[in-house]
Amino acid sequence: xxxxxxxxxxxxxxxxxxxxxxxxxxxxxxxxxxxxxxxxxxxxxxxxxxxxxxxxxxxxxxxxxxxxxxxxxxxxxxxxxxxxxxxxxxxxxxxxxxxxxxxxxxxxxxxxxxxxxxxxxxxxxxxxxxxxxxxxxxxxxxxxxxxxxxxxxxxxxxxxxxxxxxxxxxxxxxxxxxxxxxxxxxxxxxxxxxxxxxxxxxxxxxxxxxxxxxxxxxxxxxxxxxxxxxxxxxxxxxxxxxxxxxxxxxxxxxxxxxxxxxxxxx
Length: 266
Known about the structure:
Elements: H1 16-29, H2 36-42, H3 46-51, H4 60-81, H5 87-97, H6 100-109, H7 120-124, H8 131-170, H9 178-190, E1 195-202, E2 209-216, E3 219-226, H10 229-244, H11 246-249
Antiparallel strand pairs: 1-2, 2-3
């Protein structure tokens, strides 16, 4: 796949200082780009492209490509590595390892946040620490590496990052998706669905904290808190799941969570 075919991506220019930064990332990630302009584009957030006077692109199309490459590499690995597992089991493992939480953690380990090009507004709002932004950037890097170096190199890069995460899921050492676990439990036990409610939000606009509770029948659990509603819902779901299935959740919850208590109906 030739880079010349992708000039429409409008890659940001790579000056001498930026080239050194990208080389540091390549060293840390144990990869090497033939065209560093592609790697630089993978780090280019929409906010940066919008604020830049030059006509440059952003990393969203690379993210789209990288998401597909990532999914195929992981699906092929699971298919070949676990022939005894059912399709549903493979899908569950894949959903954990390619989740936003998992990819954001890997991105932090690779120090992706140090290299992202973002606009001033996004910078002031803590953009470098946002899980979605980090996960999307990692997918964009995968997409760029696929264009630059092809399938085999991309496959090696992805598996080096994700096989340890796959092993965690298989050995039940992974971070749980408590919203999904709670919904499955409530459907099975109560023939109903959890209902989430925003209790309050605190803090300034650039650094808000959300507080959510979850209602199951006549019982309310929480509140759970997070930097966005999704995180707060996960925290509330974890408290509810811990209360309903204490023996199963004891090994996977931090010790401090045992001090939390469920709320009764007001």
